Amino acid sequence: MKNAKPVANSKKIKVLGNKNFKTVTRRGVVLVDFWAPWCGPCKIIAPVLNDIADSEDNVTVAKVNVDQQQPLAKKFKVRNIPTLVVLKDGVEMHRFVGVKTKRAIMKEVNALMAS
Fold this sequence. Notes:
115 residues, 4 helices, transport, disulfide bond
């Protein structure tokens, strides 16, 4: 499964690893989805994340495959997936575990944008 593709159809979703994580997350609001190809709930939330990536210009959506990027998953203490981490200028501001609606996710993202 080394080359497993993220469950994402949006071309705007960034695939993160150790090499590009800091660069992508250091500025602005970034919603990072920690996922795995075998995870059913990850597949359920994928369309929500695709929608956010395609329709919301104020947030960058990114994915981290926990099977391929175990050091990142460990650094963020990901114990369950999907875990969505909201970063602002590289700092974790909020975290969701499990499947969430677009409305719930964007409520938190928009609150961060206003702060």
